[in-house]
Specification:
By secondary structure, the protein is of the alpha+beta class. The chain has helices spanning 79-90, 114-129, 140-151, 159-164, 200-205, 213-232, 235-241, 248-251, 258-267, 289-305; strands at 6-7, 14-15, 19-29, 38-54, 58-65, 97-103, 167-172, 177-181, 188-194, 272-275, 282-286, 310-316, 323-324. It is built from 10 helices and 13 strands. Helix 1 (79-90) runs parallel beside helix 2, helix 2 (114-129) packs antiparallel against helix 3 and helix 6 (213-232) packs antiparallel against helix 7. The protein binds L-homoserine. The site of L-homoserine (HSE) has 14 residues, from helix 5.
């Protein structure tokens, strides 16, 4: 083929025209009591990136779909290209040319880790295209840079589970210490996204920066209880530990009928109910798929009744993380 330039790589021979398509999943961060330290991945929704090697060094974005024109196509301003640029710098491959197509398959500002799914899809595409067999943990700091740009804070509780799959604890940010947690089989997640805008940046600004000791004791008891429940496969313990006295009381005000939706979900047999990430999405854990579907359906009906559009998703915890789809 004309214009095909052989490019050197320490990992694999890549040449202009090579391409890959990657899916990365949505994530539920915080998991109610673990603000900024807990998250898990789900099977759907998620974002897709198509990445192509070009013959001109640098990163370009040729197309973004599904974003209603909200995301920047300027590679200096887009979280996907910025994260990939940092990754290429780290492996000394700024000589490479990469073009990115981003296909948003999930709502922006939903509390489902929308920017994380895009960023992780881009990083995983670049790593795989280059045949870089590094542990995905190496990509985490680059993904966190994307989060910092998207909402002003580089938290890892969406990007880490999007990257590794499964349930993840950020034990420490400095130094970064990430622990993959087990989870009981059969745990299902019902997600309802009410169509109202809650940007993470703003949802972070409204939370208290100082907390009292009594609340702190309640919160760390619950986090320890949730993590113990995950290890023990004790779904009752998981359920009763998922209480948040610090963040939810403030953020729930941004979500239409939050407490009514909780009551309805618990009546239908949910194990627990809370805000996904910074909202407005809410989620419930259930012991089976049928209950998750029943909750999604009922809560969406309620939102329709109060004239709010919504989306619903039902998924087990996704242990695979990102995957190559083309
Ligand atoms: N931990 C972050 C927050 C997640 O709650 O602000 C954002 O999705």
């Amino acid at each position: 083929m004309e214009n095909i330039q052989e490019l050197k790589s320490p990992f694999a021979d890549v040449k202009a025209g090579d391409s890959i398509q990657v899916f990365a999943p949505a994530t539920v961060a915080n998991v109610v009591c673990g603000f900024d330290v807990l998250g898990f991945a789900v099977n759907e929704p998620g974002d897709e990136v198509i990445m192509r090697v070009t013959n001109k060094p640098g990163i370009t974005i040729s197309k973004i779909t599904g974003d209603d024109g909200r995301l920047p196509v300027d590679p200096a301003k887009n979280t996907v290209s910025i994260s990939v640029k940092h990754y290429l710098e780290s492996i000394d491959r700024t000589d490479l040319g990469l073009d990115i197509e981003l296909h948003k398959k999930m709502p922006i500002g939903s509390g489902l880790g929308s920017s994380s799914a895009s960023t992780v899809a881009g990083l995983f595409a670049a790593k795989t295209l280059l045949g870089d067999n590094c542990d995905p943990i190496k990509l985490l700091p680059f993904a966190m840079k994307g989060e910092e740009m998207a909402c002003g804070h580089g938290h890892a509780d969406n990007v880490a589970p999007a990257l590794f799959g499964g349930f993840v604890l950020i034990r420490s940010y400095e130094p970064l210490d990430v622990v993959r947690l087990p989870h009981p089989k059969g745990l299902y997640c019902a997600i309802i996204f009410p169509d109202v805008d809650v940007p993470t940046r703003e949802a972070r600004q409204i939370i208290r920066t100082k907390i009292n000791m009594k609340d702190a004791v309640t919160q760390w008891g619950n986090i320890a209880g949730l993590v113990s429940g995950l290890f023990m496969g004790d779904i009752d313990l998981i359920g009763r530990s998922m209480q948040d006295v610090l963040v939810e009381p403030v953020r729930s005000m941004l979500i239409p009928d939050f407490y009514k939706m909780r009551e309805m979900a618990m009546e239908l047999g949910a194990v627990s109910f809370g805000i996904s990430g910074s909202g407005p999405s809410v989620f419930a854990f259930t012991r089976d798929e049928a209950t998750a579907h029943a909750i999604t359906q009922k809560l969406r009906q309620h939102l329709t009744h109060i004239k709010i559009g919504s989306n619903g998703y039902v998924s087990p915890i996704n242990d695979a993380g990102p995957r190559v789809i083309g």
